[in-house]
Amino acid sequence: MQLDGVLFFPVTPFDSEGNVAYDVLAEHVKHGVSAGPGAVFAACGTGEFHALELGEFERVVAVAVEATAGKVPVFAGAGGSVAQTKQFVQAAERAGANGILLLPPYLVTNPAAGLVRYVAEVAAITELPIIVYQRNNARFTPDTAVEVARIPNVVGLKDGLGDLDQMQRVVLSVRANVDKPFQFFNGLPTAEMTQLAYRAIGVELYSSAVFCFAPEISLGFYNAVQSGDTKLVNRYLYEFYKPLVELRDQVPGYAVALVKAAVRANGLDVGGVRPPLVDPADEHLAALDEIIAAGKALLS
Questions:
Q1: Closest CA to 78 of 66, 90, 69, 70
Q2: Beta partners for 158?
Q3: Torsion angle, CA of 116/117/123/129, rounded to 10 degrees?
Q4: Around Cβ 152, how many Cβ atoms within 10 Å?
Q5: How far is Cα 210 from Cα 260, in angstroms, rounded to an integer?
Q6: Cβ(48)–Cβ(273) under 8 Å?
Q7: Nearest in space to 157 (alpha carbons), one of 206, 124, 114, 121
């Protein structure tokens, strides 16, 4: 399964009582899919995987699969302890997911060999393709990345570290030593800001949180990058993405909370975030509106 295009990570809507709003989720996913993403990644970081219990998770994935209607693959997040991760993987299978985004193990600092074992144990219980997410406490060396990439159903590595030297060595090592299709992803928050640098080391794919609330802006940037329109790319980066990142960095967790607020501002009531995240302050919402307006102005 080779992915292409902008990758859509939908939010998980909550109602006024804090319960998952599955009907709103279906509408959110259908709207996103109609814009033409390369894949849907349900109940992952932007979808507040950390805040979902197993039953909620399974239904969120099932709703995303149904709403996508086979138009693009649906990957589901899974992570935590080995035992918990296996439960989420099995739930994703029951829900009809096409693949798994394997999130880092919970909390602990991991030796490299332990990370390989973690991925191998999870991969052994499923035939679903797995994309491994490198971030926080899950950091692979070039050698351990090769070991993981050789696991038959591991098909990709998504990078959330932003260490381009380390990532370049990983990319070179895997491509030289792994004889199967294998894809690399830029998984940094607001990945567009770093995508030109990732493209330079051979990483073409990236996740786009902006696609959740403004797919036209996300696709405008993507098309400008693909066509080599450097002037327009730089305008998107300076006039839209840079202010968005500066706002995002003011409060931990805004990488999710601002996205959800922007979806609400577009007329879909996806509710707020679950603890320990917090919803944006009023002055930040006003700044967000101005940033989105600047992004949409670039479309003309």
A1: 90
A2: 133, 185
A3: -10
A4: 11
A5: 10
A6: yes
A7: 206
> Which two tokens mark 157?
């590595």
> CA-based Rg of the chain, rounded to a whole angstrom?
18
Q: Which amino acid is at 90?
A: Q
- Give me the sign of the Cα torsion angle 11, 158, 244, 216: negative
The predicted-structure confidence for 114-143, as pLDDT tens digits, reads as follows 999 999 999 999 999 999 999 988 999 999
Distance CA 20, CA 13 (A): 6
- Give 155-201 pLDDT, tens digit per residue: 999 999 999 999 999 999 999 999 999 999 999 999 999 999 999 99
Q: Which residue has the tokens 């302050």?
A: 281
3-state secondary structure the chain: CCCCCCEECCCCCECCCCCECHHHHHHHHHHHHHCCCCEEEECCCCCCHHHCCHHHHHHHHHHHHHHHCCCCCEEEEECCCHHHHHHHHHHHHHHCCCEEEECCCCCCCCCHHHHHHHHHHHHCCCCCCEEEEEECCECCCHHHHHHHHCCCCEEEEEECCCCHHHHHHHHHHHHHHCCCCCEEEECCCCHHHHHHHHHHCCCCEEEECHHHHCHHHHHHHHHHHHHCCHHHHHHHHHHHHHHHHHHHCCCCCHHHHHHHHHHHHCCCCCCCCCCCCCCCCHHHHHHHHHHHHHHHHCCC
Quick one: tokens of 242?
Answer: 């840079």
24 token code pair: 């709103």
Residue type, 140: F
